[in-house]
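Researcher: We plan to redesign the surface later, but first we want a full-length starting point. Tokens attached.
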């Protein structure tokens, strides 16, 4: 009797263990998988916490009791508004529950530094391509020129990390303090030597010469480029201006040698060179998608397809990378310039910024440009990608991305879709996405150049 009772008890324990193992296995098989956040506990300075991942077909996902949309491939994404201090966030399905604790640091009020007038002194720019800005802020669309090494400036004020640059009466610029050093002599007084303009079939060249290196700015309106040289060492009104009529498709270069500026405006040639830039690469993964995909890999797939399409059309194509490699922003621009690039296309996929996510709004294709000469190409490519791929029109925008800032080519950056949008993930995970996206970009380029 005792032996039989012991046997029955033993069998019950075995069955309990078996079913526990079975249920645990089922839970593991069917449980959702989160790509973001990576840690159960985190400290952030953001306004939102993003939950991005993949669910099984039979799972119903809720985050803090709010039901979450799951795409046909299992992708889901959701943002949670954070309050200061600890936020307890419960991610739950019918198979699994996980608790995340996100601590948001208290908001810090940034005190704007006050402007302080300084006794005017001469300073020298330390290296080429130094930004002269319209405001004392080290980002955004406020660059008014890129100064050359040994350009002499009059600095008459400071605010935060910037010096104010006196250009002319009522006209100022701003430069980082670390970008300049005090000049050896305060008696700098360059004289005007002469100016000249020549017009050719597909270009025009304009020169303004002084006996020393002076600051300049470039402005554009609908019809012309306005190139100005400032000589505040002579007077507050010493400004030399060249108004240059713009062709429909153009790019330009600005050079300075011993006080002589050369501004060359080029028409887009018939036989163009296109540099195709696959964004990120190597240790720079870019955005990560709901299903764990890395942006750098999809960027490269599209870029390779784009090269093949353009090459088949007889267009000369240069690639900034053709494998999973680290390539600096400087090297990407250098590759384009070394190969006399006319059009530069940087290929990316987007991610959702620190805002409340809307899966129907934060999706689709957007195209960015920096210089006005690239706006028309941006519009053309966006329309073509929307048509070919079927993505939502997310707009043409300006942005100060390093690879599209140069003026010596027409440059755009294409965000083909959103990595962190479950609806877009169904598109970019399809076998045809890379080829269709590349075809859309190629069609946009062809439309822009008139083929």
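Model: Full-length starting sequence:
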């Amino acid at each position: 009797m005792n032996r039989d009772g012991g046997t029955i008890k033993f069998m019950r324990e075995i069955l309990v263990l078996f079913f526990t193992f079975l249920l645990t296995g089922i839970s593991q098989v069917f449980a959702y998988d989160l790509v973001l956040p990576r840690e159960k506990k985190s400290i952030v300075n953001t306004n939102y916490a993003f939950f991005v991942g993949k669910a099984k077909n039979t799972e119903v996902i809720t985050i803090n009791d709010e039901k979450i949309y799951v795409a046909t491939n299992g992708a889901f994404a959701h943002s949670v508004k954070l309050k200061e201090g600890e936020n307890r966030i419960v991610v739950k399905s019918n198979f699994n529950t996980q608790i995340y604790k996100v601590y948001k640091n208290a908001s810090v009020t940034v005190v704007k530094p006050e402007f302080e007038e300084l006794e005017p002194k001469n300073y020298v720019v330390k290296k080429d391509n130094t930004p002269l800005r319209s405001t004392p802020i080290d980002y955004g669309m406020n660059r008014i020129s890129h100064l050359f090494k040994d350009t002499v400036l009059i600095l008459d004020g400071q605010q935060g990390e910037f010096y104010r640059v006196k250009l002319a009466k009522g006209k100022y610029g701003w430069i980082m303090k670390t970008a300049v050093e005090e000049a050896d002599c305060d008696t700098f007084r360059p004289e005007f030597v002469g100016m000249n303009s020549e017009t050719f079939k597909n270009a025009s060249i304009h020169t303004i010469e002084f006996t020393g290196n002076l600051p300049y700015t470039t402005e554009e309106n609908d019809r012309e480029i306005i190139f100005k040289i400032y000589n505040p060492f002579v007077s507050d009104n010493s400004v030399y201006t060249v108004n240059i009529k713009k062709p429909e498709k153009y790019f330009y270069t600005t050079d300075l040698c011993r006080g002589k500026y050369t501004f060359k405006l080029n028409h887009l040639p018939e036989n163009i060179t296109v540099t195709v830039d696959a964004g990120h690469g190597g240790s720079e993964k870019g955005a990560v998608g709901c299903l764990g995909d890395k942006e750098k890999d999809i960027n490269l797939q599209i870029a390779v397809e784009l090269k093949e399409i353009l090459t088949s059309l007889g267009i000369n194509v240069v690639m900034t990378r053709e494998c999973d490699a680290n390539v600096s922003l400087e090297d990407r621009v250098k590759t384009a310039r070394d190969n006399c690039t006319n059009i530069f296309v940087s290929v990316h996929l987007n991610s959702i910024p620190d805002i409340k996510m809307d899966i129907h709004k934060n999706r689709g294709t957007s195209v960015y440009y920096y210089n006005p000469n690239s706006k028309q190409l941006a519009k053309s490519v966006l329309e073509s990608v929307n048509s070919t791929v079927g993505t939502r029109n997310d707009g043409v925008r300006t942005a100060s991305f390093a690879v599209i800032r140069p003026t010596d080519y027409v440059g755009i950056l294409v965000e083909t879709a959103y990595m962190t949008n479950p609806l877009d993930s169904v598109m970019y995970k399809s076998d045809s996405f890379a080829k269709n996206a590349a075809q859309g970009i190629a069609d946009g380029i062809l439309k822009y150049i008139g083929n």
